[in-house]
Amino acid sequence: MIDTDFTGKVVLVTGAAQGIGAAIAQAFKEAGAIPWLADIDQQGVEAAARTIDGATLFAKNSDRRGREPQPFVQFVNTWGQDKVLFGTDWPVIDPERAIAEIEELGLRPEPARKLLRDNALRLFRLPESNS
Predict the structure, then answer these.
(1) Is pTM beyond 0.70 here?
(2) How many domains does the chain have?
(3) For a tag on the chain, would you pick the N or C end, based on fewer CB atoms within 10 A?
(4) Residue 48 in domain
(5) Is 45 among the domain residues?
(6) Domain that holds residue 91
(7) pLDDT values of the chain reduced to their tens digit, one per residue, 131 residues
(8) C-alpha distance across the termini of the chain, in Å
């Protein structure tokens, strides 16, 4: 259960076809968010989207090798840079791999920092650190 009000906020949930990802998307919906779902399992994520009222498929994902998710990159580099948080579905994908894949996207430095750090600090009202 999510105890923060996300009314009207768009959340992008990756790994949303089943399991924890689908449950997270449902929890965000129950907290008022508009979930956008993504997964490499296209049929699974389409099925999950049908079960979550108001969910949107973010983009057709497939095996990303050699293809960057351009809608996501554009979103993060522009008007979405204050609206996204980094997360990984560890233990399926370890954090080192996830960070390496984020770095491969070629995000601009400020939006990348917001995605990986600053937006979480702001959302969870965490103090800035000097490290």
Answers:
(1) no
(2) 2
(3) C
(4) yes
(5) yes
(6) 65-124
(7) 567 888 888 888 888 999 999 999 999 999 998 888 888 888 898 999 999 988 887 755 444 444 456 777 888 999 889 988 887 777 777 888 888 888 888 899 999 999 999 999 998 889 988 65
(8) 32
